[in-house]
Amino acid sequence: MKKNDYRSIDIGIVAAYITSEATAQGLGSCILGWLDSDKIKKICDIEGEVRLVICVGYAKEVDRLRTKKRKAINELAKIIGE
User: Fold this and answer.
1) The domain containing residue 54 runs over which residues?
2) Which of 6, 60, 75, 82 is least surrounded by CB atoms within 10 angstroms?
3) DSSP states of the chain as a string?
4) 8 A C-beta contact, residue 55 and residue 18
């Protein structure tokens, strides 16, 4: 209608749902957006564009999630008007 391209938004929504459901099913997941598109197309015999890969599987028993390093909210945002 307005000639907007919503594919990137749709891909983000689908990626969020897939990874969320994988977690709910006891699976691990990894979203890969920085990849060698040509190699992926060759391995998977795909002709179209590869914009995102989501890996889903079981983690090894010894694998542990890394500790998240997050900045404090006051380093990221300034609340105005309180």
Assistant:
1) 7-76
2) 82
3) ------HHHHHHHHHHHHHHHHHHTT-EEEEE-S--HHHHHHHHT--S----EEEEEPPPTT--PPPP----HHHH------
4) no
Domains contained in the chain, number: 1
CB contact set of 28 (below 8 Å; sequence gap of 6+): 22, 56, 57, 58, 59, 63
Domain assignment present for residue 2? The answer is: no
The tens place of each residue's pLDDT in the chain, 82 residues long, gives 688 888 889 989 999 999 999 989 988 898 888 889 999 999 999 998 888 899 999 877 787 777 888 899 889 998 888 6
Q: Which residues contact 57 (CB under 8 A, 6 or more apart)?
A: 27, 28
Assessment of whether the complete model's pTM goes beyond 0.90: no
